[in-house]
Design a protein that fits this description.
Strands 1-2-3-6-5-4 form a 6-stranded antiparallel β-barrel. Helix content is 17%, strand content 36%. The chain starts with 14 loop residues before the first helix and ends with a strand. It is an alpha+beta fold and 466 residues long.
Length: 466
């Protein structure tokens, strides 16, 4: 009898023949490679439990810009419901970096922010300020008051492999602290979203080296973490590939190794200083390979050399194909940009080049380029502030006169025209009594009983903001 390892069985055979056939198949075909089982549900749960306490929900107020057509496909952009009064609402996510209150998020989440509110996973709310932001990498840092916060564990994005499971955590479409799962689809993606500012001007030295994933992302995910199955943050979610602005199959995240370096500099000095060569680069195409005598389309083509810049002084020429820097291989422009981001301005870097079919090396003293900024302090918004609303005497009771839009008081339900009856279980009949009760509030928490014409008595609890 001839035993074959391929093709369907054609006839019925007995148990002994089955055993013999199996043995022959192993002998003929070799031991089948052991398959790695898919992660169990418990693995996902453990990863979520580790990271979720360190994730925050970010609400942003900013001055409304003129309408310029459809929104770009970036999660975290303002939600559709636009309040009146020239104020635009936006939402995004972030992670707590340390117990000093520093929070890592996406730059486009807080761009132009006039007020930022951070909600922790345990529902505590804090006013935050923007420490600094770097549009060239889409990274920003916020700060809330120091406290005993759960801190995110940061992983090593360089260790990610295609096919690795990852989780995207954030607040898509206002659905706070949501989780989606997918795999790493690609690394080192450049999709051309950071090259232009919202006002149309060119962005200084944009750096795109994104992790691509099919984990679902939507507006509100931006700034939130992309995590591995150990619950370690490996990326900061930043964009989606979509014609509609909603999830359409792929999302992108800034590698945490890059985001961490940028955040450290933003916290320390308010800007980012990166090494630069002083060249303009392009991807290598098939025509380039023929012109330059290349055997592949890998590398970064030098299409312009800045006169008297670092590369020019070192002897880099037009048409050079950079295939490595130091001990790192360069197959795309994004690879070279990412490698430069890890180097120190002023250091000597060896470029490995193909010049019209001939391999050579050039040592370059790296220049420095600066990006990022500390936002100017925001002026106190007009109208009520502090507790979020003002009061006036009307007859024998204080009445809410005006409410700051989107303040904690407004979100809790304070509205103009409400008659204030009690503050923190203390009856108030005058504006002076109201002010005294507010000053004595414990930990800035107010419990206010108001009277409304339609509802009658109502209790409203909220935290004030300094």
């Amino acid at each position: 009898m001839h035993a074959s390892c391929t093709g369907p069985a054609r006839m019925s055979i007995g148990p002994r023949c089955i055993a013999l056939a199996a043995a022959l198949c192993v002998a003929a075909c070799g031991q089948e490679e052991e398959r790695v089982p898919a992660p169990a549900a418990a693995t996902f749960r453990e990863a979520v439990d580790r990271v979720l306490p360190s994730v925050v929900y970010i609400q942003v107020e900013s001055a409304r810009p003129p309408y310029e057509g459809p929104l770009p496909p970036l999660p975290g952009l303002p939600l559709p419901d636009m309040p009146p009064g020239g104020i635009q609402l936006g939402a995004g996510s972030g992670i707590i970096l340390d117990r000093e209150g520093y929070i890592l998020t996406s730059d486009h989440v807080v761009e132009g922010a006039t007020a930022v509110t951070v909600t922790l996973h345990d529902r505590r709310e804090f006013e935050a300020h923007v420490v600094a932001r770097d549009p060239s990498t889409d990274v920003a840092v916020l700060k809330i008051q120091p406290g005993d916060y759960p801190v995110a564990r940061l992983g090593d994005s360089d260790q990610l492999q295609l096919g690795d499971w990852v989780l995207a955590v954030g607040s898509p479409l206002g659905l706070q602290f949501s989780v989606s799962a997918g795999v790493v689809s690609a690394k080192g993606r450049s999709i051309g979203i950071l090259g232009t500012r919202r006002d149309g001007a060119a962005q200084a030295a944009p750096l795109e080296h994104f992790i691509q994933t099919d984990a679902a992302m939507n507006p509100g995910n931006s700034g939130g973490p992309l995590v591995d199955l150990e619950g370690r943050v490996v990326g900061i979610n930043t964009a989606i590939a979509s014609p509609t602005g909603l999830y359409f199959g792929y999302g992108f995240a800034v590698p945490i190794n890059l985001a961490r370096r940028v955040a450290d500099q933003l916290i320390r000095q308010g800007y980012v200083s990166r090494a630069y060569l002083g060249v303009m680069l392009d991807e290598v195409e098939s025509a380039d390979a023929q012109v330059y005598g290349l055997t592949s389309t890998e590398g970064a083509e030098v299409v312009h050399v800045e006169p008297n810049g670092p590369a020019d002084r070192a002897g880099v020429e037009l048409g050079d194909i950079i295939i490595g820097i130091g001990d790192r291989e360069v197959t795309t422009v994004s690879d070279l940009q990412a490698a430069l981001a890890e180097l120190t301005p002023g250091a000597i870097a060896r470029l490995h080049i193909i010049r019209y079919g001939t391999r050579t090396a050039v040592d370059v003293e790296l220049g420095a380029i600066r990006s990022g900024e500390r936002p100017a302090p925001q002026p106190t918004p007009p109208g009520p502030h502090g507790i979020g609303f003002s009061v006036a005497q009307q007859g024998d009771r204080p009445v809410v006169a005006a409410v700051r839009p989107h303040s904690p008081a407004a979100r809790a339900g304070i509205r103009p025209g409400q008659v204030i009856l009690e503050v923190n279980r203390r009856e108030v009949t005058t504006v002076e009594e109201f002010a005294s009760a507010v000053r004595q509030a414990h930990n800035g928490v107010l419990s206010v009983i108001v009277a409304e014409p339609e509802l009658g008595r109502r209790i409203i609890n909220f935290e004030t903001r300094p």
